[in-house]
Specification:
- The chain is mainly alpha-helical.
- The chain has two domains: 59 residues, Arc Repressor Mutant, subunit A; 135 residues, no CATH class.
- Helix 2 packs across helix 8.
- The longest helix is centred in the N-terminal third of the chain and has 25 residues.
- The radius of gyration is 26 Å and the shape is elongated.
- The termini are far apart.
Length: 235
């Protein structure tokens, strides 16, 4: 009896499947050779891309699929999704935080407006990126802790300091407990307006005035011309 002859198409499909299996085996072998700390870093970097693309509705199963590993293997490195989110927060937000910002805001050898100018130029250089902006917005929409952690950090270490230094600038008591809610809200308005420039550019892909330096200087000029009356009001 004559043996059936495989068609050219079947032969190609079989060969493609063999190559794919070999490639997958090679990829797994290469991944197994990575030291644990490097593999953890690889997973965190892919998680940053993943969450920036799809938000926090994307689960660990989808992330594992993107990584090309099993979900149980991912859980060996990150016991919970919250543990992974904390790692993402540390890499995207805390690693970009510069202690020099706080030192700069306290440096009274410089005029306060100059201090704020230097600070916001450095701060926006650090945060104006697609992953920073998108993860921050997604986390706020989904109630993920990243947004809360970072807001608290900004308010306590930066914005209250700006309030404190501005009160001293105009001759008001400079103690931190003297800061009123409306004063802090005004500084949030300054800060939020500058950050929103990045939101328009990196979230909405809208055309923006590309001279970021002028945007910052204009925002500070408006703040310093109008803030004093609000700070001096008794109510």
């Amino acid at each position: 009896m004559r043996k059936p002859v495989m068609s050219t198409k079947s032969t190609k499909e079989t060969w493609t499947a063999v190559k794919r299996t070999a490639h997958d085996r090679t990829s797994r072998t290469k991944r197994k050779r990575l030291p644990p700390e490097k593999r953890t870093q690889e997973f965190v970097e892919k998680a940053i891309e993943y969450f920036a693309d799809v938000g926090f509705e994307g689960g660990t199963r989808g992330l594992a699929r993107r990584l090309g590993v099993t979900q149980p293997l991912l859980y060996r490195y990150f016991p919970t999704k919250e543990h992974l989110i904390r790692q993402v927060y540390e890499q995207v937000y805390l690693s970009r935080w510069e202690p020099e910002w706080e030192e700069l805001l306290r440096d009274r050898s410089l005029d306060l407006q100059d201090r704020l100018s230097k600070f916001y130029h450095s701060y926006t250089d650090a945060i104006f990126s697609r992953e920073w902006m998108r993860i921050y917005m997604f986390s706020g929409l989904r109630g993920v802790e990243i947004n809360k952690w970072y807001r608290e950090l900004v308010e306590e270490r930066l914005l209250k300091r700006i309030c404190h230094e501005y009160r001293r600038e105009i001759g008001l008591p400079g103690k931190k407990n003297a800061i009123r809610d409306k004063e802090l809200e005004l500084v949030w308005t300054l800060h939020g307006g500058i950050v929103y420039y990045g939101v328009r550019k990196f979230i909405y892909d809208l055309p923006v005035y590309e001279d970021k330096s002028s945007v910052i200087e204009n925002a500070l000029e408006v703040f310093f011309k109008g803030a004093e009356s609000t700070f001096r009001k008794r109510n």
